[in-house]
Amino acid sequence: MSFIGKLAYLVLFPGLVFIAFAGTLARGLLAGMSGAITGGNPGGPEQSLPSILYLLNGECIPIGGPIQALQWLAPAVKLLSLSWVSCAIFGFLPGDVVLVYALLLLSSSADLVLCFMSGNPRVRQNGWPEAVSLLGWSIPLAAVLAGVSLRTGSVSISGLINWQTANGVLLGSTAGGAQALAGSWLMFLVALMCSLSMMRLRPFGRGYFSDAPAGICCDISGPPLALLRVAEMASFIVVPLLIVALFLGGGASASYEVVFWGLKLAGLFMLLGLFDQVSARMRADRVLLWLVCAGSACAVVGLVLVRSGVSR
Amino acid sequence: MNPFALLWRRQLSVFHIRMAGCGGCGEVVDDMLRDGWPAIALECSSPRHAGLVVVTGCWTPELGGAGLEVIAQAPSTRRLALVGDCALGRGFIAEVLGLAGGVGERVTPDLLVPGCPVSFESLVEGVRDVAS
User: Fold this and answer.
1) How far apart are CA A271 and CA B52, in angstroms?
2) Which of A222, A225, A278, B116 is spaced 20 to 30 Å from A259 by Cα?
């Protein structure tokens, strides 16, 4: 496939067509859960998908700062990165865990660059907490991806899914013994913590749609804002897709399995949403320290358990 | 709001500027934005995103200049609504403070909603007209 063809593929499917709609539904589900648990939606009423897409036609007001083009480039890079991750998970484009990890890093780094290059001092001062948040999930996730690859013996996403099709899902398979199974469960818990941070859900994330990230959304307007909003919605689907692919068997290999795959995805998302709702009053800075320290420690312990289980 | 309505309804982005006064009209606007009509109008956090800028309260010399600066930051396609007698430069508070009149020289509103305080129904009707 030519470069232009791949680019068009990334933009149109599943980047915008599927993920934006699924992300909107996920956001609606989150708002519904918030209403059911707390009696209201603390984030306020939700912006609808047509309202966001209408911004594509809006005026882009210059934000100041050293590199103006970044306000156009960074949201597009963020969205395309997440779209590429989803393509790799679905198997539409070849990809391995290293590529997926690099794309997730690129997606969050686009926010960071936008923060630090902003002409608004309020946005710039939020850049460092955003950077710590990025470190908070990237270090444990690296250990998790290493552990999963070690247990399955494959670094490609399709290889991971094929291994789980043959041996059972990673969280239930007895291949490698009890040690490897315990290590997988530890890594799954750490992956959930990282997911919360990547999706900007509480307690590990810094909040979604609340001028996120770091007040950039107050700064930019028009098409870049629309892309940033769609990218935020895309993360609601891409991150659970990744966790399901790593630990719960991935996508459907037969038509009837689509239902089970959808249930796994929805269940995981609701679990993450539940964490978000019941931990609203935790202090983000202290909890982040737990993610960096305890999360990394648990991931390393899991990695060692998997290593010892597999090597026997 | 029905979560599935997020898929097809387009909302009008509203930025609310509160000026001097009793705050009654501001409460009515907030009530409309936060509880009453999120499916049609949604409050935005920055004037750069505003499709409609709503002003409530009196244009005092101090706040008036700041208000005009905020309005100038909105996109060129934005609409402007002056809500309540104070924002229109009339009513007893504006008269007592000596701020009656003169609003038309500073801004060109697209929507005028009189009342002290403004009624919820007239505000919703006005915003619906602007949204359509």
Assistant:
1) 38
2) A278
